[in-house]
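Entry 12.
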Amino acid sequence: MPHAAGPRSEAPHRGGPHAGASREAAPPTGAPRSGAPRSDARQSAGRPAATGSRPAYRRWGLTAPLPRAPHPVDRPDAAGSRRKGGALPVVARVRTRDRVVFLTYDDGAERDPRFVDLVRELRLPVSLFLTDSVVGPGYAHFARLRAVGASVQNHTLDHTYLHGLPYAGQRAAICGQQEKLHARFGVRPRLFRPPYGAYDATTLRAAADCGITAVVRWGATVTGTRAPAGLAPGAIVSLPADDPTAPPLRDRTVAVLREIQRKGLTVGRLEDYL
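Predicted 3D structure (tokens):
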């Protein structure tokens, strides 16, 4: 897969043909991300009252339970293909015939307890790509999400724009977060999302040396409460948590789930397919 593969709607980055496209404006090379967490008071506004015996899917505005995703055992089309020469695969869409899409969340800026309820009650196998400088003291929230079925993956230590950086700097940004996540959760992630979607051949080499097995981009982005275009089997959906003016993640997630349900799809676990 070419290094710059990705959705047509994303604006190209500087840095030549190997730079990934982005949903965000890129900062100067090496610039850290501020990542202040969103206010818990704002997140808790409008919290619905408990409804007793109502089924969980109805509490979240769905018409029926989401089907459980099939497990892609011995399905050769399910995994992202590894490029010739042993380079890490860069995946913006999973090759699968299963009617599944994948929900991914970046950074770790929003820590809404109702989002934990949503993941738990609907048993959503979401993937969280965390940046240490953004999460800050909020790792306990992500431990709760992990306890209810979410997976934790790598999004670098400080959200540095990696394309064009020397190997040592890229390796430190990726391996450093591997070590942070291992210290917090006892696991070293297999999946890595480069900040802004930007990477180059050095990124792939550094990520592989840090134990990463696939670089994950995205094919659709959800910023408001309208479902994104392009939801089809294998779609990787990104729901960034870095915009304080955007609706809460729970609301954006519910909007996507309604469209997923309307199209006869369900949510799969990305780690099962890569």
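Annotation: Residues 1-26, 28-32, 34-51, 74-84 have pLDDT under 50 and may be disordered. The two ends are 15 Å apart (CA to CA).
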